[in-house]
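Hi C.,

You asked whether I'd gotten around to modeling the 257-residue construct. I have! Everything is below, sequence then structure, no commentary in between.
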Amino acid sequence: MRPDGGDPEPDDYGLPRVDVVVPDDARELERDVVAYRREERRRRRRARTRRLVGPLTRFGVAIPIIAGALLVALLSGVLMTAFGPRPAPRPSGAQLAPRPSASPGRVGGLLPDEKVDLVTGDRTPARLRDLRPGVIGIVPPAYRCENVVAELAGRTQQYKLNFWLVADPRPAGGRKPTSLKDLKACAGTAHNGAPLILEDRGGVLAGAYAPAPGTPGPTGTGLTAVFVEPDGVVTEVARGPQPGPELTGRVESLRSG
């Protein structure tokens, strides 16, 4: 202890004496304990932050910039897919068959010489006989989208052909015709390939190739596939087709034709 009225005397090692005050009540140290614990919490938070951001700051600002660029690219791809232009039909360089074996609107003949609307945001008039080569899918009223739509979309894209979807507008008892909105939603289920949407308000295609409205069974409730060769001849009409090797062979034969 410091003697009264004097300076501290050096100890045996030549160091000045240090005043040490021992409180009578430990509660007097509570403020120091609180400050110590606060500083320890800050130190632990800084250590956690360094562990989290350490990998990102190891190479400076390069990693955050790359991550931001990847995010922008991902968002751009999503927006282009959702709002980008629809695929255009693949044109055929072949001439129409001059002397088909059947009359228009029948198997072995050309498509009817009529017009429909190609729906790609706006409606663009299209001549039916220009819809070649490829497959036209006619869906009945109140159609429930089937896996065959995605299958046909994928196979036609694989063989560089076209695939169109069109609704049968003819009345069918209490069932309403499939709307353009439902038709587009069905086309959106195809992850490989993109079906093109047609609007045939006169029901030309359905009247020529699809079963009568209200026909019972899979034939009346399923899709009707019309296979059109490059020269415009309808080679086959499949009612209620199912995915599988047989359907793949039918699509592939259009390319060879």
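If it helps when you're writing up: The CA atoms of residues 159 and 255 lie 7 Å apart.

Thanks,
B.
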